[in-house]
Amino acid sequence: MRIQNIISGMKEDIPEKYLESIFELMQKSQREYLPADPPHLNFYRKNWKVPELSWVKSLQFVGVNENDEVMSYAWLGWNTKYDNLEQAWHFIHLQDNKEKENNRMIMFREIVNSIPEQIKTMYAWYLSESKEEHFYDKIKDERAYEEFFYIANLDEHNLDEISLEAQKQKEKVLQKGYDLIIVDNLNYKENIEDYPKFVNLIECVWNDMPREKLSEENTKLTTERYDEQCDNNLQRWETFLSFVAIERKTKNPVGITVSVISDYQPQVAWQWETGVLHEHRGNGLGLALKYQMLERMLKTTQVRTWSTGSSSANIHMHKINEILGYKKWNSEVVFEFTKEELQKFLKKF
Question: Do 16 and 70 form a contact (C-beta atoms < 8 A)?
Answer without folding.
Answer: no
